[in-house]
Amino acid sequence: MEILAFGVQADEQPLIEGAFAGRAEVRCLDVFLNEDTAPIAAGHEIVSSSVNADLGASVLEILSAGGTRMVAQRSTGFNNIDLETAERLGLTVARVSSYSPYSVAEFAWALALAVDRRVVRASNRTRDFDFRLQGLMGRDLHGRTAGVLGTGRIGAAFARIAHGFGMRLLGWDVTENPACRELGMTYVPKDELLAESDLLTLHVPLMPGTRHLIDAAALKAMRDDAILVNTSRGGLVDTAALVGELRAGRFTGVGLDVYEAEAGLFFLDKSLTAVEDDTLARLVTFPNVLVTSHQAYYTEDAVGQIVDATVGNVLDYRAGRRSENVLVPRS
């Protein structure tokens, strides 16, 4: 049985092939799974997808018609999967329920520090042998307030780092995390957190109830000199509203590793083509904005754990076992 893995980055391929070695045959493709590429999977019982795959109803229909019975997604989030259609078609769907929270938390801090201390601008200047300090002044984060929206494993890891910086901690979540409480975090309503945070970081999943969690009203409630970091899902932020606030000169810095319309852009080389997304094109022009291509999870440790969990999901499917990673069980 050959497993077909879509959206495999060059760095990932040896990890995937090594993990499956001796267990199953796997063929890695660098193209992403969508309506155009789904027919490639014909004859493959098991397909593995990446975080930006399109697993809507039409794609699942194509996979099912081609003989696919199991989809193993190599990510935690699954907002891109039509689970109702998968269940109707009798497709087993599994994800990776958890991996190193430090990969994302540490990268969120990398973004926060980079925009606070104007690292990208400074680096660009020194490449031109311009060593002036004008416009590079940042702020100490020690003693300031970090607001953490979502205090699960990643949010808690971010909070521990913030605690090490000597920051005041505010949190918001549907369930309080005792580990964050032990750090001195105070849980407050979202509006209060927005109004008091010098640094706001997002670590909640994207669901219908969290889409545009940071909307126009939320952005206006934030401090003019706040730092906003999003390493979770792009749909949490109303990007058009964010651009409007940035045009008004607000916010010390914004670090985004995700973008709500990133599918078809992120993970691809678009350097020689015209990008038709006017919102993204405008966003990257602001000197206080840093956009990266959904790479927060991309460490040897985290990717290794994701791959191992994916192999486990495939082996469980073949053995008829069910784990916490299964979103739609085998029919």
TrEMBL record:
Position of the signal peptide: none
Matching InterPro entries: D-isomer_2_OHA_DH_cat_dom, D-isomer_DH_CS, D-isomer_DH_CS1, D-isomer_DH_NAD-bd, D-LDH-like, NAD(P)-bd_dom_sf
The UniProt record lists the keyword Transferase: no
Residue span(s) of domain D-isomer specific 2-hydroxyacid dehydrogenase NAD-binding: 110-296
Enzyme Commission designation: 1.1.1.28
Keyword Oxidoreductase tagged: yes
Pfam family, one: 2-Hacid_dh
D-isomer specific 2-hydroxyacid dehydrogenase catalytic domain residues: 8-327
Gene3D superfamilies given in the database record: NAD(P)-binding Rossmann-like Domain
Entry similarity comment: Belongs to the D-isomer specific 2-hydroxyacid dehydrogenase family.
Annotated protein name in UniProt: D-lactate dehydrogenase
Source organism (scientific name): Streptomyces griseoviridis
